[in-house]
Amino acid sequence: GDSSDSIHHHPTIKKWNDTGIKLGNVSNCYVTPPGYNGSIKKGHLKFDAEFECGNLLKAECVSEFEYDLYVRPDINNSRYRVWFYFTVSNNKAGQRAIFNIVNFSKTKSLYRDGMAPVIKSTTRPKWVRLSAKNAFYYRSPDHDNNYVMSFAVLLDKEDEEYSFAYCYPYSYSKLQHYLDTIEAKSLHYVRRECIALTLQKRRLDMITITSPEFTLENRHHLSCSLAGDDLNRHWHDPTPWRHPTLSATKDILIDYDSDNTYDVEFYVDIHGHTTLVNAFMYGNIFDDNVRFEKQSIFPKLLSSNAEDFSMAKTCFNKDAVKAGTGRRFLGSYLNPNALCYTLEVSCYGYQNGINCITPYTEEAFMRLGRNFAKTFVDYYELNGCVNELLAERAAAVAMRRKTGRERDGEKGRKQSNDRINNKGETNGIEYNTASWNNNKQNYEG
Which of 42, 112, 143, 180 has a CA between 20 and 30 Å from the CA of residue 318? Predict the structure, then answer.
């Protein structure tokens, strides 16, 4: 090829054929065609996933335009191979490529329903979803008849880095930056505290949002831990050394529930769903009909607020395989008034009465979050709690005003008495002032 396309050898340049992978993600690996032993050139794509949220185990060039990509499984748990996030660079302008994700752990996938990866690049930093016509999910005879997701891309600009991900990434660092920003505002109704550290020594933050009558607690943790455990299957038996975040969260909830000054009313665990569309909820089944019917109120209110929430997909069960989940365990452990749910949100999109699926954007996910928060207000309004709280606040304001008027009245009476007691002195001041004015007029006259 043209020697101008060559990249001079440098000790930091890694070719997959030379170094491969030790433990972790691909790291600045140039992928060359099979049997190629020459210099790295423009067009030999460089793959990297050695960054926060990044995930890609291996990349292989199988033809001039085609690459087989292997998802790195969760640490210490080879069962989970879904998430990918990697960058590609060193392309020629207008270079075309086909990427095959060849080792997903699930055969059922939203890619069968039209889902496609998300992409951004150096000069276009906003994540967008690739067109569904560019992504294909199929059984591949070239990969032992396993399911493969292939997507075709045009790498249109030189000196551009392209990023690809399963869905919109939201990193731990981004979360911490957001929480730092909120904390810096010193809002009197928001409190942040670290209640545990993960096995990787990352913070588990508890965010408390308060009003005179209501407290909302929020915690954030990952599903699969460094030990390889699915944390949402160990609510019945967490240990502080292996499941520190789960153990701390469970202890706090149980403490609140046993404290007469608190009423634990809701527990909601929020998950991304990789096989179904829409947002929907899982709830529990109870022998008490009143409790069971009460549990259906919140999802119905949410469905009226959010067009992407599906009441039809919402279901209530006591499936034995879900016994270790937060919803199931806390639903049987907490007080009978506590409502425990799992809120599932599709990683792809939603249908609302028509066959067409509307893909989620980052803004649409945010909108669902706002509608979810609004539904709590609607729920408490329906139960009269909001009106009762407003009435209590109005009464408190009226009492403060009354107290203020009484205090001002007492102060006014004291000032009046002081004037009466000092009447002679006051008259003298007034007289002397009048005399001075009269004298001055006379002098001027």
Answer: 112
Residue (of 241, 257, 353, 375) closest to 306 by Cα position: 375
List Cα–Cα distances, 83 to 97, 105, 175, 351, 398, in angstroms.
20, 10, 19, 24, 56
- The dihedral region occupied by 20, where left means phi > 0, alpha psi between -120 and 50, and beta the remainder, is left
Q: Please write the tens of the pLDDT for every residue from 148-181.
A: 999 999 999 999 999 999 999 999 999 999 999 9
Which of 161, 293, 344, 406 is the catalytic position?
Answer: 344
C-alpha 128/C-alpha 83 separation (Å) is: 17
Please give the Cα distance from 336 to 396 (Å, whole number). Answer: 32
Report angle CA 384, 258, 373 to the nearest 5 degrees. 40
What is the pTM for the complete model shown?
Answer: 0.80
Look up 388 and say whether it is catalytic: no
